[in-house]
Write a structure and sequence with these properties.
The chain has 136 residues and is an alpha+beta fold. The protein has three helices and five strands. Strands 1-5-4-3-2 form a five-stranded antiparallel sheet. The relative contact order is 0.15.
Amino acid sequence: MTETISNNEKSFNILNKLILNGFYDGNISPNRIELNRKYGIFNSGGNHRIIGILNSENKFELDFDFKFPMNIAVKVAIGIGIIFSIISLIYGNWFLPIPFFILPFLITYIDFKLKKKKEINLLTSKFLELYKSEYE
């Protein structure tokens, strides 16, 4: 199930407050949201961002992605790993792809999925906390 945020004036106000209060950096437009969590006063966060894209039901579907330099580096590393694995399997080295590509790939994938769940849950909890304090 994907988390969504409705596209209305209240949601935009709360998202603006999240940015103004220093919880997140990012930009908000009528059809896209991009937020980066702040970890400290001067630190703008890790290598991840939360993206919300407007769907046909007029809600932002929240997704999680790498920031600019990391998204290209990850794709290049996966490509090199796949090529290395295919070449190793062609030459009969069945064991080499496991410790050098498959294991690190699985660790990175599991870590990414756990961070995605954590960051989206953190955003929605902060969002609901501000919503309740503001409009109820």
